[in-house]
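User: What would this chain look like folded?
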Amino acid sequence: MPCNDTTSSITVEINKDDELVDYQYEKISCGKAIGERGDYLNFCLGKKIEQIADIPFQEALKKCNIENSEGEFLLYLEWKALRELLRQYLGMERDSDSDRYKIAEITADEDRTSVEMIIRPPDEMPPIISCGEMKH
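Assistant: Here's the prediction, encoded as structure tokens.
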């Protein structure tokens, strides 16, 4: 799969009290994390998943103290992925643009539940620069 494929996945770990334990949000093609994996995860850890599913983006943005448009965009992708996974898992009303988000697998034991979602790219996107071509 080429690196410029933007199909991604999010895997969420939930404890027996329906609290968020962890999540990983990454590109499927190369396994590279999307976003910084820090502030928003830390803000959500230990919260009830129903509460997280209702967090407005503006609140997430404020809590994470993002200072540039790229960071804001990456936070939006992370927020949206987590929100869609939790809303579908809980049977809550989905956002109007949620057709690209599909739960792929749910596994559980007596202490934890793991939920994986696959996120397809939008039908129309601007040209994508692959990770290997980006200058850091």
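The chain has one domain: 8-124. If you want, I can go into more detail on any region.
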